[in-house]
Amino acid sequence: xxxxxxxxxxxxxxxxxxxxxxxxxxxxxxxxxxxxxxxxxxxxxxxxxxxxxxxxxxxxxxxxxxxxxxxxxxxxxxxxxxxxxxxxxxxxxxxxxxxxxxxxxxxxxxxxxxxxxxxxxxxxxxxxxxxxxxxxxxxxxxxxxxxxxxxxxxxxxxxxxxxxxxxxxxxxxxxxxxxxxxxxxxxxxxxxxxxxxxxxxxxxx
Length: 205
Description:
Elements: H1 22-42, H2 49-56, H3 60-67, H4 70-77, H5 79-91, H6 102-128, H7 134-137, H8 139-155, H9 161-170, H10 174-183, H11 188-203
Helix pairs in contact: 1-2, 2-3, 4-6, 5-8, 6-8, 6-10, 6-11, 8-9
């Protein structure tokens, strides 16, 4: 004889995302808040994962299960700004968004990346300099590369769009740009002028 269950079984609904457990949501918020506070106080490079776990009041294992490494944690802190920038170059106003010539959009895109680096350089540097190749395996890089590939195909169809996109994005890597800004003392306006010249020479716009 089958005994009726006191609580009905909750079955997953096709096409919906599984709901995150409340404690997991809480832990994520605690970790991000602790990391943001410690990074602001000490600088990104001077904060260990142990210190973040302690500041959040969670175990180190919980921290690593949630984020994997510090680069992933830093990317999570940048999600809002990254999402806003992607929205701007995909659906925003020209010249960054649709409606402007490919060369103008590419110039505006690079200027936007440089502005983000000038504001969040230490965070972006930490996000890109974890495990070897981590920058190229990240979802932001995939989105940016797809955008630049589209612009190259539209503005210079004779070029290998994939190779050209990777070459252009290499000049916007956090490590190089932060070295130019801090190590060599190059001004942001000078970097933007250099990017504009490079982008227009590639797309002959």
